[in-house]
Amino acid sequence: MATGLLTPVVQYLLQLVDEKVRLVGGLNDQVNSLQRELSLMSDYLDPPDGKRNAVLKSAIDEVREMAYKAEDVIDTFILNTSKHMRRNAFGRIIQWLPHEKTLLDVVQKIESLNREINKIFENIKKYGAGERAEASVDADQSEEALHRSRREVEEDDVVGFNNNAKALAKLFIANGYELDVISIIGMGGLGKTTLARKFYNTTRSRRHFARRAWVYVSQHDKTRQLLLKILKEMPISDELRRKLEGMGEGELKETLSKYLNGERYLVVMDDIWKTDFWDEVRSVFPNNSNGSRILITSRNKAVALNASHSTRLYILPFLNKDESWELFHKKVFRGEECPPELELPGRQLAESCRGLPLSIVVLGGILANEKRELLSWSKFEVINNKLTRCKDILALSYTYLSRHLKPCFLYLGAYPEDFEIPVRQLINLWIAEGFIQHTHNMDPEDVAEGYLEQLIDRSLIQLASRRTDRRSVKTCRIHDLLRDLCISQSAEEKFLDVHTEGNYSESSANKSRRLSIQGIVDPYISSNSSYPTIPRSLLFLGRDTNEFDKKHWKWVDENFKLIRVLNFGHLINLSIPESIGKLIHLRYLGIKSDALKAIPASIRKLTDLETLDMRHTSPSILPKEIWKLRRLRNLYMYGPVSFPNYFDPKDKPLRSLHVLSTVSLTPKNVLILEANLPKLRKLGIWFAEDSDSHVLNSLIHLPDLRKLKIINYKERSNVPISFPSNITKITLRAGYLDVGDSIEVLGKLSSLMILKLESCSLSSNLEFIAGSFPKLEVLKLKELTIKEWKLERDAMPCLKHLVINRCIELIVLPFESLCALQDVEVLHSNIESVMTLQKLQKKKSRKNLRFNLVIDPLPGDNFYQRTAASPPATSS
Residue by residue, what is the 3-state secondary structure of 277-327? Predict the structure, then answer.
């Protein structure tokens, strides 16, 4: 087990004493002691180098079981205490003695668990400490063996790399004669080493560089070891080679620097893991102003950015279908023709590798030794179990992850194969699970975004799409092989069980803390009517729609009493039972149901609830009990949903709320904006029939508001006179907009970076006055019935990204004034505007002011035939 997976338990225990004093008051000392012990064990059992011997591995399993038992004991006590506190005074008096006995039992159980953990620690020190060095040697040898295996696989065949090699060659030339560092970035098995060797082994490279060295950099290499490797790869004299082992780090640096001085050299450092490696060796490489180069490969983008400028990075893409088939064909048939009957299944097998060269080559190597017949190839399920080398190589990425990132990475296995993962949902789930470390000066959402970027930089997550601001990630994916790694590792660690319709019956006593069901729920419940442990998460993340009847709810009530995360996925339910209020530990509740019209009043009992996600649900009104959820941070609704008008000001309702979208705003409930949402950062408003524009003036009372969406505001209504000063994004949809006064107000917002005008009725053609929108970077115009857009001098000086979507009549565009443009999308709009853009693009290209242009004409338009252009694509 990677004891980074103990992090949620340790984090939870830290919060208990601070936040639930009333419920665990009699357990403070025991909980504090337990937290200290687990924190100490976590540090000891999870060394930074990832090296563990058999004693440590066994101890990790034992400590994990102790931690889970302690968590169960404490959570069960809190559940029972909560029931006790809800009794009337007479009931509490009657039940006082049994409650005190329960408290004593819990104290004794926790103290017993503490003693067990201490005993494990003593055994480790007694039997395991002496084997740490042995484990270190074994880990190094194992890693070297895996590297040799990867090298054999990657160097065996080179397919689809011609364009990549050309792009890399351009980077080598780009910086002229100055010393330059170039980086190849990509996930394990994508072919970084292959591409680097393709360049390194060329005749041109051998002739061009007088001094060359290729070194594999182990995760455990110290600076001295790295310097030794580089020098030994150089064509040095035998006398110098004999002296190297006796040199210290300083002397090696001086020797290497002198040896390279005045020479044109190429040093390739393969598979770098540490972000600070370049700082340790930078001074060794002299800038001889003769075109010398350093080439590094890494799975971690942060490594490359620390060593070279972002323009010197080459992010390696996956192979396309044709390239995958070419590589597969070359590996399996080795120059011979493919039998016609095997081409279709062969292409399907190649495509199943999802463009990962390592997987294709390993699979091809297995099939090359099988009979070339359909019956033999149909045994792919058996063959797939032999892909251990590939999985072991990818597993290195997990082994050397930071402790806080390991549970976040494994959690991705909960999503179905080829699923585009919504990042906001993922982040809210991470927070609810307790994976995000608390910092005093950062919101957990911001910390979680940092974790996500780190996983992307390490090539463990693929970026699928970015948000409008082009900065933050909107959706992501995980490669199938890495997802398989997540699932197998999670099962081993009892972290997560994933069940699809094909394995519903594979129930075992080795159940995990989290359960992901991907398919129809009925067959699963039939096969697993009871759950031997107490899961903390139940996730329905598949694409199927389920109906939860009384039988299903009973199953949840009986088996998931201590649950913290409950995501239903798609439901066709009309209601949720009052029994939902029994799940008092819930932090995340996700519901998708077009039919659901009401939320039960018992929701008031979910006092730990942080996220209520009903983005695809439209209850007509929220119960007044919603005001009781003081820890609620995110409230997503499909809208328009009415807020209850009544609340007790003494309750200080929803003081923790960060996201509120989309709510029906009326003169009666607008008071909530004025006094009770001090931390609100994102707000979506749907204008009710009896609303007027004056209710928007209450927005000024939201000092932290960053993002605002206003939908369906009435005819002739205007935007407010002023907005919160920190607002960065505004979306106006399906309403009336006065081009004069309203646009002038928006144009004065000094922090506004994103503006979306969608399906709005404008008083006249669009016109932005001089000096307006000084920080705007993104403008989206969608379904506007205007013919002309004017821009006065110095308006929108920072505009980088422009989207024009379904603006059929728009012809006159002010592009001559937009000097900062980088990307323009014209979708289903007037072709005359497209022609104007193309002319401007050519003109700016001559001035070295280029922008990317994406064109998607109206359906049925023969634009590309008329312009003799290629199909819709990005051009520059």
Answer: HHHHHHHHCCCCCCCCEEEEEECCHHHHHHHCCHHHEEECCCCCHHHHHHH
Q: Residue 226 and residue 353: Cα distance in Å, rounded? A: 34
Query: Is the separation of the CB atoms in 459 and 441 below 8 Å?
Result: no
Residues 853 and 872: their CA atoms lie apart, in Å, by: 10
pLDDT, position 133: 42
Residue 710, beta-bridge partner list: 685, 732
SS3 assignment for 704-762 = CCCEEEEECCCCCCCCCCCCCCCCCEEEEECCEECCCHHHHHHHCCCCCCEEEEECCEE
DSSP states of 419-472 as a string?
A: --EEHHHHHHHHHHHT-SPPBTTB-HHHHHHHHHHHHHHTTSSEEEEE-TTSSS
Q: Is the dihedral of CA 802, 807, 810, 811 positive or negative?
A: positive
Q: Which two tokens stand for residue 453?
A: 């970027």
* Contact predicate 626/650, CB 8 Å: no
Predicted confidence at residue 521, as pLDDT, reads: 75
**Contacts made by residues 640-649, CB under 8 angstroms, sequence distance 24+:** 640/664, 640/686, 640/688, 640/711, 640/712, 642/666, 642/669, 642/688, 643/669, 643/672, 644/669, 645/669, 647/672, 647/676, 649/675, 649/676
Distance CA 429, CA 437 (A): 14
**514: helix, strand or coil:** strand
Which of 817 and 721 is assigned the larger pLDDT?
A: 817
Nearest to 67 by CA among 752, 424, 536, 445: 536
Per DSSP, 767 falls in state E
Token readout for 361 is: 């080559």
Are 410 and 486 in contact by the 8 Å Cβ rule? The answer is yes
Q: By the 8 A CB rule, do 638 and 663 touch?
A: no
pLDDT tens digit sequence for 718-740 = 566 678 888 999 999 988 777 77
pTM listed for this prediction: 0.74
Q: How far is CA 187 from its chain centroid?
A: 15
Q: Give the whole-angstrom CA distance, residue 557 versus residue 867.
A: 64
DSSP reduced 3-state for 876: coil
> In the block, which residue shows the tokens 């025991």?
30
Distance in angstroms (rounded) separating the CA atoms of residues 323 and 704: 50
Contact 320, 168 (CB under 8 A): no
In angstroms, how far is CA 41 from the centroid of its own chain? 28
Q: What is the pLDDT of residue 826?
A: 84
| Cα angle 87-88-90, degrees, rounded to a multiple of 5 | 115
Q: How far apart are CA 344 and CA 384, in angstroms?
A: 18
CB 464 within 8 A of CB 477: yes
Maximum mean pLDDT: which of 507-511, 624-628, 817-821:
624-628
CB 804 within 8 A of CB 825: yes
User: What pLDDT does residue 24 have?
Assistant: 53
Go through 119-156 and write b for each residue having 16 or more CB atoms within 10 A of its CB, e for each that does not. ebbeebeeebeebeeebbeebbeebeebbebbbebbeb
Please check whether residue 729 is in contact with residue 468, taking contact to mean a CB–CB distance below 8 angstroms. yes
Say whether pLDDT at 659 is over 80: yes
640 cis-preceded (ω within 30 degrees of 0): yes
The two three-digit tokens of residue 615, written as one number: 């983005």
Find the Cα–Cα–Cα–Cα dihedral 206, 212, 217, 223, rounded to 10°. Answer: -170
Instruction: Please report how many Cα atoms fall inside a 13 Å half-sphere around the Cα of residue 842, on the Cβ side.
Output: 5
Look up residue 171 and give its amino acid. Answer: L
User: Is there a contact between 632 and 612 (Cβ–Cβ < 8 Å)?
Assistant: yes
* Six token digits for residue 62: 């034992």
Strands (E), 765-851: 766-768, 778-782, 789-791, 801-805, 823-827
For residue 220, pLDDT beyond 70: no
**Residue 125: DSSP 8-state:** I
Handedness of CA 419, 422, 423, 428 (dihedral sign): negative
Q: Residue 154's closest CA among 351, 394, 340? A: 394
